[in-house]
Request: fold
Amino acid sequence: MGKYRTPSKKSKWYLPTEDYLTAVHYALRYPSLLNELPPANSASGIDYSKDRVQTSNQYDATSDLAIRRLEIQTKIDIIEACIKEASNGQDKVLKDAVCYGRTYYQLQDKGYLGSQYELGQMRQHFYYILIQRI
Reply:
């Protein structure tokens, strides 16, 4: 990841390189997590065509879907909560920067008026919070 420098040891948002890269790649998974999230109503309901049994060793698609949705939604919620905490009211800008890999100049073209330093500080703060929650 040569795009951004890792925070130095003097920074208040310092992270070891491995943790920093873990946080960067975790955040970059946000769009794919949104695509992976299955729709809530995609599971089939109870099948009354079979004999009624109290317990069963059969595959439960509804349960597996619910567990999968919960795992993915939890990851999405962690990322969004960290964005909200670190963004200083600029959630969309920070989400574009950390989740979609937009650079400062791309964000400027989209209307971002802050400084490059300010964006870098928000980004580093986000990664610092994120690595503590994952």
Summary: Residues 12 and 125 are 9 Å apart (CA to CA). The two ends are 20 Å apart (CA to CA).
